[in-house]
Amino acid sequence: MSESVAFADGMLELRGRRNRKAIPSEAVNTVWICALEDSLHQGEEEFHIVITDDEFILIGPFVEGADGAIAAMLEHSPAIPVEHRNIGRMPFRFRTSGLFGLRLFPIAGLKTGKLAELDDLMVSRRERHDGQ
Fold first, then answer.
1. Residue 13's domain spans which residues?
2. What would the mean pLDDT of 109-114 be, rounded to a whole number?
3. Do the beta carbons of residue 130 and residue 122 sit within 8 Å?
4. Is the pTM of this model over 0.90?
5. Residue 62 belongs to a domain
6. Domain with 104 in it: what CATH number?
7. Own/partner pairs for 96-101, CB < 8 Å, 24+ apart?
């Protein structure tokens, strides 16, 4: 089963390889649009981190339905702040499984974590260069 994200009836629905979870949009404090800091060696794909009071949800760039679900949630709840962040590193536990289940490349998967674990990602604010 592949990882996917959907938004329906005010709920962000996460479907992982082993579990499912639904988060009401009212529980979302912030959405980060993220990129890996070293795009030269690690790709330029943007991905999302959804922040709630007690956890974060990392939604990688290749998770099925990710962009549409985030866009639908933000349209449904326009008061949710959106911030742009750089991610300095992608620990193995947050990476998507590749060939033979190996996590060789620093590509974000679909993971949840405690807020304290955000420090492991070396997050910093990102300046936008497209006028926004």
1. 4-125
2. 90
3. no
4. no
5. yes
6. 2.30.29
7. 96/3, 96/60, 96/62, 96/63, 97/17
